[in-house]
Amino acid sequence: MVVELFLDLLSQPCRALFIFAKKNNIPFELKHVDLLKGQHMTEEFDKVNALRKVPALRDGAFTLAESTAILLYLSRKFKTPDHWYPSDLQKRARVDEYLSWQHTAIRAAGCKVYLSKVLLPLITGKPFCPEKVERAIEELNVALKQFEEKFLEDKPFIAGSEISLADLVAVVEIMQPVGAGYEIFKPRPKLAEWQGRVEEAIGKELFQEAHEQVLNAKSLSVAELVPELREQMACMLLKLIN
Ligand SMILES: N[C@@H](CCC(=O)N[C@@H](CS)C(=O)NCC(=O)O)C(=O)O
Hints:
Blueprint: E1 3-7, H1 12-23, E2 28-32, H2 43-46, E3 56-59, E4 62-65, H3 67-77, H4 89-124, H5 130-152, H6 165-179, H7 189-202, H8 204-211, H9 227-241
The site of glutathione has 12 residues, from α1.
């Protein structure tokens, strides 16, 4: 029985897992959990991840939540090439450092841009609030400056000369505000060059496949989201962006 991955490619951590599994030829069954249909809120999905969030993994009777834990589980189980999570003590520490930092920095700010500009208007049917989007962009700009100066410096990749889990996790988060129409790369040549290297290391086709949905906001629909769930999701999003 192959590993089952519960994903929605609209979600950044899900894209990281999808790319990682495909790039490393890890055999897996993709279980699509459609966030915009509220499929993560069902009793059925609750048995896989009681946190009711994607991504999640099931390997036989074993279930696992949290993308970092899942990436590490897959890298160990399938003994993926060393560069993803280097055995060298200090290179590995660089990856750990980035994975620890990113949740409250790039991820938090990039999410706010996407949620306030794309998802909340889609769910409520109301236009986005320009002040909220502006505030989120300011937060994101601070995080991106820290990313370039502290984490990337003048290296090709975060842990040195090869792509690692840190770059993968970073790139999927950085693409989320791009999906909201925010021009991230033009004013940041260093970031743009890094993104190009990461995309090349992953493979352009796989990168595009993973990002197709998030880069096409017009294709999103909440027509199948029942009113109670719509209400719950709107409240949750408002809390997240405030
Ligand atoms: N720390 C978690 C974050 C998971 C997460 O926030 N997933 C979002 C999609 S990106 C989700 O499922 N949201 C649905 C909800 O919170 O109701 C991870 O890295 O896996």
